[in-house]
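Narrative summary of target 7.
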Amino acid sequence: MNAAKTAPSAMKMAFFYVSSAAAYFAHAIFAYSLIIYAQSRGGGASLSGQLLATMYGPMLVLGLYGGMLADRYSRKAILLTSHLLAAAVTAVFACAISKALGVGLALFVFAGVYGVPVSVMAATRLAFVGNFAEARALERCTTIVKVLNVMAFGGGPLVAGWLRERVTWTQLFILPVALWAVSIALLLSLPETRSTVVARRASPWSELAEGLRFFQRSSILRGLGLLSAAVFGLVLGPYQVLVPLLAKAELGLGEASRGLLMGTFGGGLLAGGILSAFVTPYKRRGALMVVAIGGSCAFLVLAANGSTFRVVAAALAMSGGFGGLLNGLVPTTMQTVTPDAMRARVLSVYYAILLGTPAFGASVWSWAAGVVGVRLALAVSGVLGVGIAVAAATWLPGVWRYESGTGADADSDQELTTGVTP
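Modeled conformation, tokenized:
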């Protein structure tokens, strides 16, 4: 099904890493800037949550379809097309702001349209790692890409907050356009290194169903999907909409300090992501992932109860650290237990969870914050996450007992090797 892989030059791999970093930062800066722009126009936590849900909503459907496309067609072409569309939408939004058109319903229109290319590119980029890396280097290369991802997730708000006090809104939104352009230019220089003509045994929708069935039949994939949904909805969602409000309303911080506070979580994510590269060979990887979920949620509870910048920042950094560890280990595990022929479809399920559940969580917890207050809503979300992590040791033995080097479940392997399609 795949053309023989050739070892990429160090320069080509570096181009791919820099291209990925530019794209990740472009998205992180746009997403955070959109939130604080909406809040500057009088929108509260509820509006921020609704915008995130609108942006990431397409991921729940189009992301899965995009994963199927990336297993059938050129992953490079899909990445280039989605990057171009994201850059175009961002550029139009920047122009709309300059004309005072980026308010009200227009915010949701831009968020929804922007979410379409983002939903397609997520799994495709990570699956594209398999185009370059041989099996023995797949975990290391995947970890590097995920470290770049978490670096942007935390660094994007920091950059946006710092710039907002120095530039106009239009200039702020021009920055991600430039970053998308850099990513596109570097992608153009990369070879495909994979056959663009894939043997098609069934219709696209049947192949999509095949990927979903493969995911569902693997106890490790299914369990990681459930736990990822819990932590993303209970940590990342509240973090994106409640922490900015906590910083402004409860701690009285300005834009730069608010961005810095958000950045501490990102710094923790980065540290945790780097740490994941060193603990990947640890035999009890499944137990380590469950502990990481509990740790991230527990420190979110501490952040919710912090009364000073330093306390909240320290708690967020630790929460991000455990989250970064999890964010590095989960997709790396999914990559290694999934054959290349299924990789984009399996990863599309993960990214549907990664992008969909935080948006849902942001919407739910922003509503809760309006009812019970920001601090209590943030604390309750963390407590629920700790409870889920504790229960996982009993309810999800496939994850808790997973050990490094273990392949996919026998049932999943049998389905793939016998060519059975639903």
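The two ends are 19 Å apart (CA to CA).
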